[in-house]
Amino acid sequence: MANKKEFLSIAIIFIGVLGVSSILLHDYLRGLEPSYGIYDKGGMIVAAVFVVIGLLSLVFNRYELCRKNAFFSAKVNFLQAILVFVLVATLCSVGGLLYGYYYHHPSVITPPRNWSIGIYTSSSREPFDFAGEDVNNPVLTADDVTDVEAILVADPFLVHENGVFYMFFEVWNAVTNEGDIALAISNDGLNWSYQQVVLDEPFVLSYPCVFKWSDEYYMIPDSYQMKSVRLYKATNFPYGWSFVKTLLKGRDFVDNTIFHYDDTWWLFTETRYNDLLCLYFADSPLGPWTEHVKSPVVEGNNNIARPGGNVVVFDDRVVRYAQDDYPYYGNQVWALEVTTLTREDYQEKRVGSKPILKGFDNWNTQGMHTISACRLGPDKWIAGVDGY
What we know:
20 strands, 388 residues, single chain, Tachylectin-2, Chain A
């Protein structure tokens, strides 16, 4: 009969095999080529050590029982230990499969947190020093949404046109369990009035990256469930939008961020589990789009790979924002300045040693992951931010 030491050994083995299985399977279950970063490798080493320690402890414990009681041979007890290991490994593999599927597979929707939207301002020449002390934040919550039953609002993108501020953002619809794109309007950027859902599809939409081209407004929302980057055009700005074309397809493109610089259109997109940032370029937003020779420009880094808002081009400088997804999703936002951007080369550097967004107010202490900065003057910025 198994004693307490044996149960402890089996528990150690279970933990180790579950850890190894989860790490090995998470890319495979998302339909991606397996790729393991430094944290994955470290986790697998630790989990493997657990398995070895548990197995050795189980074998030695059975051997001691055999030697004292002399009713089984060491060979038989070793085979018993191997059998137990196989059974536990089978259970762990099944557990790893279920864990990987429900927490990493793109077709499974995880219930979102209660995100809200706020407004931050800055009186600096650079878009790095934002604060919300003089604003009654959050300026938008799920309770402000009137046309659908909302769980959250997040991913704000600001447009300033003819003295009016327009904010496009994600609304999570509790009835359809999908994200829609909604609109709010403000005359001063501080007090906002919710309008309506302006884009609804039979799949999840989020991160509505809105931009202007040839005096017309366009939008590239996140539509990862379609494994494509989709372009929409405003037919009746800001309320009416229609699908134009698919720009890229075949991957889980996440948080697509387009911008114009040096007579070229550029597109950042995250294409793996928050740790792989790809870069594309084209002569126009309609494409064709070509992946940059240096792409992926970030690989294996959950802290700065996934885009976290619009790219800001000012004074011939390019700044991108990145949401930090380690140790957990959407905990803060970093600013990175692109120091070299040509069709042949790409270089960037992190701005400062601290994130530009980290929640300190009662509405965003747990996390922040999007900023949309809009320049109003030489030393004046306003930004839509989100948090929970």
